[in-house]
Design goal:
Blueprint: E1 2-3, E2 5-8, E3 11-19, H1 34-63, H2 65-79, H3 81-92, H4 97-113, H5 118-139, E4 153-157, H6 162-165, E5 173-178, H7 186-194, E6 198-200, H8 205-208, E7 214-218, E8 223-226, H9 230-249, E9 267-272, H10 278-283, E10 289-293, H11 295-298, H12 307-321, E11 325-329, H13 356-362, H14 364-377, E12 382-387, H15 393-412, E13 421-426, H16 429-433, H17 435-441, E14 444-447, H18 449-457, H19 475-490, E15 494-497, H20 508-514, E16 518-521, H21 526-534
Parallel strand pairs: 3-4, 4-5, 5-6, 9-10, 9-16, 10-11, 11-12, 12-13, 13-14, 14-15, 15-16
Antiparallel strand pairs: 1-8, 2-6, 3-7, 7-8
The structure holds phosphoenolpyruvate and magnesium ion.
Phosphoenolpyruvate binds near residues 293, 332, 448, 449 and 498.
């Protein structure tokens, strides 16, 4: 068994297809004259651009505009006059077109790789992707056609470049395994969006696994079995059958009211990161968006989205949800979520540092731009705002003052907007301990158990030695949740939960008992959560 990170749920059983980086040997291409080489280069660039435009158009339809933007970015990068001039200069120096491409791309790859931050190293992987495809075009090599792998293939690669992932056909691919990448990598996001089980960060996967090996991938626990025994195959086949049966049976909960056996009405909302995700939410009849993680709009790019772009994203989600609530969380960066162009200083303890609401209050220009976009988008649906990582009342009061300033600015400029309800995320022990006071400042609460569990248990969730303590079922975390719900109820405000624990079937009965109103889960867990709520029957008939 090999261990990696379970990044997309499900069990995949199939035959290994190793996607190795193509080896592009151009040693037999001889330099004739610069004009011929420059023509070859020009034709290859034109072919690259037209193929990429087609690919981006397909991806826009199948995976959404954010993924398509990555490919469009490749066209922009290759169209950069500096890059093309350098290639041309290399040809003038006597290089064949292939060597010119190789040399210039390698120079950019080295430059981006040495920057040692996530966004810039992503640029390096984009240039690698461009280089391989451009060399393949020059040499007439057909790129690996992932779209035509046989049924039940388990794809194994060091990593999947955006242009590779966009070609995956989910009907033929049983699982995805990569050597690098984590829960928030492109591969993980795409695998979850396509419902393909994925295990990432598997050390030496492309070396330890050979083509045609039989593979079991457990996307829950992040385990890989290579050429498993008959017993292992039988065990995982039965788990897979059971999982698929359960998934099928959940379809009965599409469009069903979320109501307990005792007639208590609850709501199942969803967590999203992009407006396109709303389609998955509607497909499972999610009753609202309980957490729009806006940092995804800010990640994987070179500069922050302007007010108009944010307005588009928020209003698109609001319109699509059609009168259902959309709770937009203001920018929550810091901790593990790095956005290099914001130039946040490196900190010794980033999880205890300048993140969430702290960063936004210290950067009012950026914060107000986001608030104005949200207020304007509120005209098109039912939007609410919530603040991440609150630890004291003053933070909420300062945010309210900035919201008022934004309203005044919009009034003055006669720009249409709507005032929105303001909520607070309860995800620190400090917020729990003053939740009675916060409940008088906020119009609703949303409990963020992902952070609350870590901060309450004093556990770094990335540290394997202490991960057994990272559990929302720990009595200390349960108490924190109970206190928060009780204080919200006492002050008569709505209380939801948007951490992963909202979908934990062990916890759902307690949450109902304590009076949680709204369960916000990832779109793939909506039906399972609704089922657990619908099956709940109170032991205490007076419970309301
Ligand atoms: C949480 O902390 O529970 C939460 C929902 O926020 P995030 O996972 O984005 O930190
Ligand atoms: Mg959080």
């Amino acid at each position: 068994m090999i261990k990696g990170i379970g990044a997309s749920q499900g069990y995949g059983i199939g035959t290994a297809v190793i996607i190795n980086d193509t080896i592009t040997d151009y040693s037999n291409i001889k330099f004739t004259d610069a004009k011929t080489q420059k023509n070859r280069l020009k034709n290859a660039i034109n072919q690259f651009i037209s193929e990429t435009e087609e690919l981006a158009a397909d991806v826009k339809k199948s995976a959404g505009s954010k993924e398509a933007e990555i490919l469009e970015g490749h066209i922009v990068m290759l169209s950069d006059p500096l890059m093309q001039t350098q290639m041309s200069d290399n040809i003038d120096a006597g290089f064949v077109a292939e060597k010119a491409v190789d040399t210039v791309c390698n120079m950019f790859i080295d430059m981006f790789s040495s920057a040692n931050d996530e966004l810039t190293s992503q640029r390096a992987s984009d240039i690698k992707d461009i280089k391989t495809r451009l060399l393949n075009i020059l040499l007439g090599i057909k790129s690996i056609d992932i779209s035509h792998v046989p049924k039940h293939s388990v794809l194994i690669a060091k990593d999947f470049t955006p242009s590779m992932t966009s070609r995956i056909n989910p009907n033929n691919v049983s699982a995805i395994i990569t050597q690098i990448g984590g829960i928030t990598s492109h591969s993980a996001i795409l695998a979850r969006a396509m419902g393909i089980p994925a295990v990432l960060s598997v050390p030496d996967a492309t070396k330890k696994i050979r083509n045609k090996d039989i593979i079991i991938a457990d996307g829950f626990k992040g385990k890989i079995f290579v050429n498993p025994s008959a017993q292992e195959l039988e065990y995982y086949s039965s788990l897979q059958t059971e999982y698929l049966k359960q998934k099928d049976s959940l379809m009965a909960y599409i469009g069903k009211e979320t109501i307990t056996q005792d007639g208590i009405k609850k709501s199942v909302y969803a967590n999203i990161g992009r407006p396109e995700d709303v389609q998955n939410v509607l497909h499972c009849s999610g009753e609202g968006i309980g957490l729009f993680r806006t940092e995804f709009l800010f990640m994987d790019r070179n500069q922050e989205p302007d007010e108009e772009e944010q307005f588009e994203a928020y209003s698109t989600a609001a319109r699509a949800m059609d009168c259902r609530e959309v709770i937009i969380r203001t920018l929550d960066i810091g901790g593990d979520k790095e956005i290099p162009y914001l130039k946040i200083e490196k900190e010794d303890n980033p999880f205890l540092g300048h993140r969430g609401i702290r960063y936004c209050l210290d950067n009012p220009k950026l914060f107000k731009k986001q608030i104005r976009a949200i207020l304007r988008a509120a005209v098109y649906g039912c939007i609410k705002i919530m603040l991440p990582l609150v630890t004291c009342v003053e933070e909420v009061q300062q945010a309210k003052a900035l919201i008022k300033e934004c309203e005044a600015e919009l009034n003055e400029k006669k720009i249409e907007y709507k005032s929105v309800a303001l909520g607070v995320m309860i995800e620190t022990p400090a917020a729990v301990l003053i939740s009675d006071i916060l409940a008088r400042e906020a119009e609703f609460f949303s409990i963020g158990t992902n952070d609350l569990t870590g901060y309450t248990m004093a556990v770094d969730r990335g540290n394997a030695k202490v991960c057994n303590l990272y559990d929302a079922m720990q009595p200390a975390v349960l108490r924190a949740i109970e206190i928060t719900i009780k204080n919200a109820k006492r002050e008569g405000i709505q209380v939801g939960m948007c951490g992963e624990a909202a979908a934990d079937t062990r916890l759902i009965p307690k949450l109902i008992e304590w009076g949680l109103d709204e369960f916000s889960v990832n779109p793939g867990s909506i039906l399972q959560t609704r089922k657990a709520i619908c099956e709940y029957k109170s032991k205490n008939p007076d419970e309301k």
